[in-house]
Design goal:
- The chain crosses the membrane at residues 9-29, 49-70, 90-112, 118-141.
- Keywords: Membrane, Transmembrane, Transmembrane helix.
- This protein has one domain (2-162).
- It is an all-alpha fold.
- The chain is 82% helix and 0% strand.
- The radius of gyration is 20 Å and the shape is elongated.
- It has helices at residues 2-11, 14-36, 44-49, 52-64, 66-69, 76-81, 85-101, 103-111, 118-162.
- The protein is built from nine helices and no strands.
């Protein structure tokens, strides 16, 4: 059951949809892009430093993503006792895995010096975009989680005052 949920979370995600969209757009219009957007004019220094973007996003996700499972010392117990915690954990695991796996194609394209080719630039941009969506998902999850825990805390305080 949980393995199917892992697969569902991976395949039915904004990141996966974005990568599929990138593939479809490339397949439909690669002739147009290769004709009207030559990549030979890219700045060599920009290509040298462009790898900081996906690595920076991955580092941020790995560092800040832990806050999804461990929002604060006082509220961790409530979160970890939540009946659907296992779903949150699977979303976390898939998101962390995505951040690592989506960085690998960016590194390979950069190391092979393929950013000056249309295929390389497309792969790099697609996976860097998916990394950005993944990082935003973690950011949004932390905000939603904090909000839910604040509401839960307010409800508990209200119940204690009423008793």
């Amino acid at each position: 059951m949980r393995m199917f949920y892992y697969l569902k979370v991976f395949f039915f995600s904004f990141e996966f949809a974005f990568l599929v969209l990138c593939l479809i757009v490339y397949m439909v219009s690669h002739g147009f892009f290769s004709q009207y957007f030559p990549l030979s004019s890219l700045n060599d220094e920009a290509i040298q430093w462009v790898m900081l973007f996906p690595i920076g996003i991955t580092v941020w996700t790995l560092k800040e993503g832990v806050g999804v499972l461990f929002p604060s010392e006082k509220k961790e117990k409530v979160l970890h006792e939540w009946p659907d915690y296992w779903k949150l954990k699977i979303h976390f695991d898939v998101g962390i895995s995505n951040s690592i796996f989506f960085t690998i194609p960016c590194i390979i394209v950069w190391l092979l010096d393929a950013l000056s080719t249309l295929v390389g630039a497309w792969i790099f941009a697609g996976f860097a975009g998916a990394l950005s969506i993944n990082a935003f998902s973690f950011y949004a999850a932390r905000i939603s989680l904090r909000s839910a825990l604040i509401r839960l805390d307010d409800d508990n305080n209200y119940d204690n005052h009423v008793k």
